[in-house]
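Exercise 7b. Backbone tokens:
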């Protein structure tokens, strides 16, 4: 079974699972979809998987027009379709590549939903999502509710996906690379890493946390991109407190060293509809570095990890769990347990599950 994984340039920066499939099964190649205007930009390389490049002529917005869409189809049919001739399965990883589905006739199509795009962009990608859901023999989803409810509730199609959660790239998040930071000493530290916006940050919760632990340092790493100016200003004011440090955006290749210095990792999602469908792989990244996690409870995806991920249903519950987590953060046995849990959710395990799903459906 030969597999062509069709990805977008941005999405392919995080490619651990595809590389794990290639290393272990040697049956997959990658096709990175770019616009023709990016033809001369540097190309991604990998020592583990062959990477090919395919190009679209028109930006997605222009392909909404029938004539331009037809021209794009003809170009893809003539120049891109032959590239897939030797493959049995096409893995489509996001809506940016959905326009290629008409040229994939005769292939078994596997699509991946990693986010509730409809809720994130006001329905702009609904038709592409419907096309992917209805054209796929297998629809993989990274959260339980994406798999069970999303297509019927928001796309209006009777399709149920298969839960295939995000995982951790142990080669990057390996505690052995940060042995000196496995168990912290000195003052305790809370940390948050990731984009900061209306989805990922509950501002009243952050305010309560910082005020309730005045002698504990809080470190925030990531990009601030609230859409409302007053929300951004309100959040940024928190950084003026003596026990809060804003580190800015830290590259993905360097954030591990910063996280390794923390005691408790925070996940501060606001509790509302969109967050119910979002499954964060940073949960497993934190566990891989031996860190305890305190999170807002937005769904049931992490229930099996409840020993080391303390999910909270409100501010008071979150504060209580934060105190418990501080008491357990430096327990040697608990640190080892967290790493063990992360190993069960590694990209290697995810690759194995992927092939098991394909084998059960296609053979």
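Sequence design result:
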């Amino acid at each position: 079974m030969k597999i062509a994984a069709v990805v977008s340039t941005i999405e392919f920066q995080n490619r651990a699972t595809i590389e794990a499939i290639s290393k272990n099964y040697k049956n997959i190649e990658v096709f990175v979809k770019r616009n023709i205007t990016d033809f001369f930009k540097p190309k991604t390389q990998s020592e583990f998987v062959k990477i090919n490049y395919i190009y679209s002529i028109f930006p997605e917005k222009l392909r909404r027009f029938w004539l331009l869409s037809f021209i794009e189809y003809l170009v893809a049919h003539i120049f891109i379709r032959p590239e897939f001739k030797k493959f049995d399965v096409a893995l489509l990883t996001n809506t940016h590549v959905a326009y290629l589905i008409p040229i994939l006739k005769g292939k078994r199509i596997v699509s991946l939903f990693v986010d509730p795009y409809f809720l994130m962009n006001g329905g702009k990608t609904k038709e592409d999502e419907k096309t992917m859901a209805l054209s796929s023999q297998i629809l993989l989803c990274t959260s339980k509710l994406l798999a069970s409810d999303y297509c019927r509730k928001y796309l209006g199609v009777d399709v149920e996906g298969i839960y295939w959660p995000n995982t951790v790239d142990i080669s990057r998040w390996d505690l052995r690379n940060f042995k000196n930071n496995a168990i912290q000493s000195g003052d305790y530290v809370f940390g948050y890493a990731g984009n900061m916006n209306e989805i990922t940050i509950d501002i009243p919760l952050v305010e309560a946390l910082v005020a309730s632990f005045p002698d504990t340092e809080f470190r925030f790493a990531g990009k601030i991109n609230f859409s409302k100016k007053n929300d951004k200003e309100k959040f940024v004011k928190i950084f003026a407190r003596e026990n809060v440090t804003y580190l800015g955006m830290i590259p993905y290749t360097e954030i591990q060293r910063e996280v390794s210095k923390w005691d408790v990792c925070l996940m501060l999602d606001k509790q509302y509809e969109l967050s119910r469908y979002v499954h964060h792989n940073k949960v497993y990244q934190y566990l891989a570095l031996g860190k305890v996690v305190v999170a807002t409870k937005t769904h049931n995806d992490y229930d099996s990890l409840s020993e080391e991920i303390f999910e909270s249903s409100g501010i008071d519950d979150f504060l209580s769990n934060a105190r418990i987590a501080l008491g357990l953060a430096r327990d040697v046995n608990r640190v080892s347990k967290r790493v063990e849990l992360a190993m069960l959710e590694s990209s290697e395990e995810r690759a194995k599950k992927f092939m098991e799903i394909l084998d059960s459906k296609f053979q």
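Instructor comment: The mean pLDDT is 94. The radius of gyration is 22 Å.
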